[in-house]
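Risk register update: the risk that structure generation would not scale has been downgraded. Supporting records follow, first protein first.
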Amino acid sequence: MIKAVDIRKSFGEQEVLKGVSATFEKGKTNLIIGLSGAGKTVFLKLLVGLIAPTSGEIWYGETDFLKLGKQERTDIRREVGMLFQGNALFDSMTVEENVRFPLDMFSKYSKKEKDLQVDKCLERVNLVGSNKKLPGEISGGMQKRVGIARAIILDPKYLFCDEPNSGLDPKTSILIDELIREITVDNNMTTIINTHDMNSVMEIGDKIILLHQGELAWVGNKKDVMTSDNETLQNFIFASPFLQRLRKAYNTR
């Protein structure tokens, strides 16, 4: 579990986050949604420790992350997997070299142990036989799966995903969503996903946190979305006439 308590973040005169508190649950896909400029990316960076809040608390389980020293924070970060929006793969490295990179950086495994772990993770994301390929030789969806394999190579307790479906077609996006959810449940991880993808919201939204103008506007799950009377949520989710008709049909069943 990760818990944020009264998080505030300002850049100069601009207050981006205005006292946001939220709990992200273990073994569930926790989604952060909101319009551009709502503070989602800043909030995600704060949670993962890339930037520091102006005030507030961030707890990893029973540990107050912001009160830790440099080495203790490094130890926590070794329990964190990160899936970046643009995959962030090294173009000159093969698939297996990209996936093995965190092991080379943070583990003391032998080469044989690393190879076995890489193969295990590639099998988990359905990329058996792709070890020697370069990122430029595989599709965008396969690149995303390489990113997932790299993110879970150290058996993390926490998984952060920044727009995991960005640039993917709808069918591939569904496959990536399903894969992230399966890994979350199987490994009992605390997974936090920053997304604009409404399919992700409706398919894997075990817990959904809506930010609006730097404030927490709504908390619920994918079932609550269809019946909530929260105006900010309705304006965000049901912006298109098609989705408005879908919601109306759902509520009259």
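Supporting record for the second protein:
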Amino acid sequence: MSKVSVIGAGNVGATCANAMAHMQFASEIVLLDIKEGLAEGKALDMMQTSKLYKFDTRIKGVTNDYSATANSDVIVVTSGIPRKPGMTREELIGTNANIVNSVVENTLQYSPNAIFIIISNPMDTMTYLTFKKSGLPKNRVIGMGGILDSSRFTCYLSEALNVPSSDISGMVIGGHGDTTMIPMIRLANYKGVPVQDLMSEEQQKDVVSKTMVGGATLTKLLGTSAWYAPGAAGAELVKSIILDKKKVFPCCVYLDGEYGQNDICIGVPIVVGKNGFEKIIEFKLNSEEQDLFSKSADAVRATNNVLKEMNLI
């Protein structure tokens, strides 16, 4: 029996819950929100598709009743206000930090052994806040962002190459921000063939550029943050934990010397299994990539410092 609780029944949280139900790896999913009736309504709507989609997962919606999340194996935190057009993830920090802090404190009371997945923005800083305030071991606090960014990266590569994205391997590391993420174009490949051998330098730069503003592009089009890809990315991460898949994903985790960084949560490749993240994989970055990673870490730290200035950690 496996139980997952998703805190926040907005677009991302509800999509994540729905995707997990379709993947059929959890026995129970609890969807919690502060808005009366929202989680209950969405959970009921999803349950009414169970016959049509042939899944047996039970989905329950509750309003601010954290006792319903008791004994969860994984807690997915999506709570917070979404981005508006022109708004950066960093501008969300004050409001969302207080929300995330409250969510983690409340869920820990009922699920002290849970693994926490952070999706709320600014994701790197919210992951750092969760790690610092919860007192949890670092392997049990994971920020989802790199999986989403990598999915966008492979999407743009598939468009440029006119091949299925499922045949492309590509990864994004660094911060989950429009100027801090690092699409690893050098290591991306199509069926084992480096994409650098298949694309012009101009095409490569275009793909990297589109990836880095992928979230902002959608926010401008939709008028709010995206939800299908973020929800699916969160579900895939939870699946690797519940089923002990040992999948390698780029995720935001606490570094203690890896990649030359300390006291920071930032995106790097990790092995994900039943214990959370079980290993950090250290790529051999070239000098340009290492410089970009260092600059990305500096930017993430600058946002983390806002937490300290606000006495939130």
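The first helix runs from residue 11 to 23. On this basis the risk owner (M.S.) recommends closing the item.
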